[in-house]
């Protein structure tokens, strides 16, 4: 669901894998597709993730080092994929250029259109699975859950929360839900003693 850190986790995954590929000199690259944020914003957020201390202390030398470090990573950012055919075209262009792809991450995959006029989750999921199988490349997809999970007592997501995906789930090998206790605990602080007021949960 929103605010669980889905985007930050996806960026961290992209960064760590790109760093691993670089350190192993494997010549592999990470492709990061974002359907709701610009590539520039992704880079800024990755910079913030890596050096908040440098920025808070206005250590411009560290900031420059971090920017230079990220720039040299085997990591490519794309935004506004549009249709599944366009996604396939971009990936196959990399392959045709002899660029070795080790991982593909697609943010908000439900925003990918089956064609310029429609959204078909099953068709999109099947084609993504086909790309992954044909090219032997792992693909990570992220998406946001509906708000219904907020009305559940424990707030924890379950498979029924993505039942709207329908037959698209057939093509997904592994499903991971992101949940943080701290997000809800910070919103449920119960006052046990208040000398001049009423005890309540806030």
Structure description:
The structure is a single chain. The chain is an alpha/beta fold and 202 residues long. Helix content is 40%, strand content 11%. The protein has helices spanning 6-23, 39-50, 52-56, 60-71, 84-96, 121-135, 181-185, and strands spanning 28-34, 75-79, 100-107, 139-141. A four-stranded parallel beta sheet has the order 2-1-3-4, sandwiched between helices. Helix 1 (6-23) packs across helix 2 (39-50) and helix 2 (39-50) crosses helix 4 (60-71). The longest helix is centred in the N-terminal third of the chain and has 18 residues, at 6-23. It is globular, with a radius of gyration of 20 Å.
Task: Describe the structure in brief.
The chain has 202 residues and is of the alpha/beta class. It contains 7 helices and 4 strands; from the N terminus they run H-E-H-H-H-E-H-E-H-E-H.
Salient structural properties:
single chain; about 200 residues; 4 strands; alpha/beta; four-stranded parallel beta sheet
CA-to-CA gap between the ends?
Answer: 21 Å
Poorly predicted segments: 188-195
Major sheet, described briefly? 4 strands, parallel
Level of helix content? 25-40%
The strand count comes to 4
Q: How many H/I helical runs?
A: 7
Over the alpha carbons, how many angstroms does the gyration radius reach? 20 Å
What best-fitting shape do the alpha-carbon axes yield?
globular
Strand order of the largest sheet: 2-1-3-4
Amount of beta strand: 5-15%
The average pLDDT is: 79
Order of helices and strands: HEHHHEHEHEH
Structural class: alpha/beta
């Amino acid at each position: 669901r929103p605010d669980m850190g889905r985007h930050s986790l996806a960026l961290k995954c992209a960064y760590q894998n790109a760093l691993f590929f670089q350190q192993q000199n494997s010549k592999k690259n990470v492709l990061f597709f974002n359907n709701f944020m610009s590539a520039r914003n992704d880079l800024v957020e990755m910079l913030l993730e890596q050096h908040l201390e440098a920025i808070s202390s206005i250590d411009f030398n560290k900031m420059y080092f971090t920017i230079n470090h990220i720039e040299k990573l085997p990591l490519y950012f794309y935004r506004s994929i549009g249709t599944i055919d366009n996604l396939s075209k971009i990936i196959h262009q990399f392959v045709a250029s002899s660029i070795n792809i080790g991982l593909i991450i697609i943010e908000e995959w439900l925003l990918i259109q089956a064609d310029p006029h429609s959204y078909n989750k099953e068709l999109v999921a099947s084609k993504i699975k086909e790309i992954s199988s044909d090219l032997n490349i792992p693909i990570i997809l992220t998406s946001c859950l509906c708000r219904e999970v907020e009305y559940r007592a424990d707030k924890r997501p379950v498979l029924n929360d993505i039942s709207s995906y329908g037959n698209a789930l057939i093509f997904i090998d592994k499903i991971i839900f992101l949940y943080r206790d701290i997000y809800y605990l910070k919103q449920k602080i119960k006052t046990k003693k208040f000398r001049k007021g009423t005890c309540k949960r806030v």
